[in-house]
Amino acid sequence: MSDHVDVLIIGAGLSGIGAAAHLAKDLPGTTYAVLERRAVSGGTWDLFRYPGVRSDSDMHTLGYRFRPWVGDTALADGASILDYVRETAREFGVDRQIRYGHHVTGAAWDSGTARWTVTAEVDGEARTTTADFLWACSGYYDYDEGHSPHFEGQERFDGRLVHPQHWPDDLDHAGKRVVVIGSGATAVTLVPAMVASGAAHVTMLQRSPTYILPVPGRDAVKRRLTSVVGEKRSYAVTRWKNIGLQSALYRLSRTRPAVVRRMVRKANVALLPPGYPVDTHFNPTYDPWDQRMCLVPDGDLFHAIREGRAEVVTDRIRTFTETGVELESGTRLDADIVVTATGLNLKIFGGAELVVDGEVVKPHEAMAYRAMMLSGVPNFAFTIGYTNASWTLKADLVAEYVVRLLAHRRAAGKRSVVPVRDASVAEAPLMDFDAGYVRRAVHTLPHQGDVEPWSLRQNYLYDARTLRRAKLDDGVLRWS
């Protein structure tokens, strides 16, 4: 394998494989490599092994725009998504360009040579690769450690205490009493999955409620269309249908939150037992989409509650005991297993240090150009998906834009391109989102601006038009 490539991609997950596939199909002749820290591809979809792990977005928008998700499954299990990602890598020859066991620790840009020198740790030794363009596709999660707050007395607990990010292979929950701490996407996935696979009883213990919306597990429109027009066309139509529904729900949530609150509550009441205290356990204090809304296929969480095999408790932990947890209300929850589905940590660019001409780049001091490049950092792009829609919708747009950028650079005979920040552009948070993992790490992230092209709208329909038509000689990108 060459020590120099035109484009070096960091991460062989959903984003990295998609980025490489775009290069392979849209920019032939480009040499590239994908550096993957782990021994296998798949990223999130290989790392997370907890029961029931699945998508929290529909697969007809989480799938790549250029490669249809086959079938009518709306929210797919992790194994199916992993197969889809790896099949995409094989189809476009990306699998042959992945270098496994490469933990990227730093990257240095030299303007004299117009190249990046990327350092990766491989089997305990440093190895370098040079590239004309660097593309970070490692997402923004810390894949070493999830968010694990310390609970009073947790050392006294005689049962198993596990975090979903590090699910033990030997954990047998059949016939066991389980407490799942949390109310986000992981928790609402774990509870019905553990019930279905034999847990005696599962309690979801939450400090405060989350919006949980039941959705069909299979897309009836996709199924009917496929029988008429075939897989490829039905995928395209279903994708746009779902994009429209996602966008409409988000806009309605921001403009008329009370309407969406009533809609979600009505859906919850219809599936919960008569007289259930829905306003205690399923009535958040914040507006819809201030945090990400959780989707549950065919209302599986509510069915588990209705059957009496699962329950939701809204309270705070006072302390762990030898047999479970004691809550501030005085209630005791006995458990054989406690799962801390307390969230994830963010780590921008996988923790790699960027250096430009000897100066260390401090991401929180930089401004993001179109939410995919950094001010003052040449020949560099990063992929971060939407917070209010499927990750891959944004990832595909970023990939299309980067391909245009690289093609323009080649055609114009330029060696480098860098966004140059205007001092008059005011700063705003890159992720205007109230989720805990964002609040904990917002001080480490780049900013966005208050005007285009420095601002991000979190709107696929708008971005699809803008990014595909945006001028590359816009006065902000400096070519040399």
Give a description of the structure:
There is one protein chain. The chain has 480 residues and is an alpha/beta fold. Helix content is 30%, strand content 25%. The strands form eight sheets. Strands 1, 2, 3, 4, 5, 6, 19, 20 and 23 form a nine-stranded mixed sheet that branches. A five-stranded parallel sheet has the order 8-17-9-10-13. A three-stranded antiparallel sheet has the order 14-15-16, with no helix packed on it. Helix 7 crosses helix 8. The longest helix is centred in the middle third of the chain and has 25 residues. The two termini are 29 Å apart.
- Beta fraction of the residues? 25-35%
CATH fold label of the largest domain? FAD/NAD(P)-binding domain
Report, as a whole number of angstroms, the end-to-end distance. Answer: 29 Å
> What class, by secondary structure content?
alpha/beta
The CATH superfamily of the largest domain is known as FAD/NAD(P)-binding domain
Question: What fraction, in percent, of the residue positions are helical?
Answer: 25-40%
CATH class of the largest domain: Alpha Beta
Q: Based on the structure given, which CATH architecture of the largest domain is correct?
A: 3-Layer(bba) Sandwich
- Profile the largest sheet: 9 strands, mixed
Q: How many strands appear in the DSSP assignment? A: 27
State Rg.
Answer: 23 Å
Give the uncertain stretches in residue-range form. none
- The shape is globular
Number of domain units: 2
Number of helices: 13
Family: Belongs to the FAD-binding monooxygenase family.
Keywords: FAD, Flavoprotein, Monooxygenase, NADP, Oxidoreductase
Cofactor: FAD
InterPro entries: FAD-binding_MO, FAD/NAD-bd_sf, Flavin_mOase-like
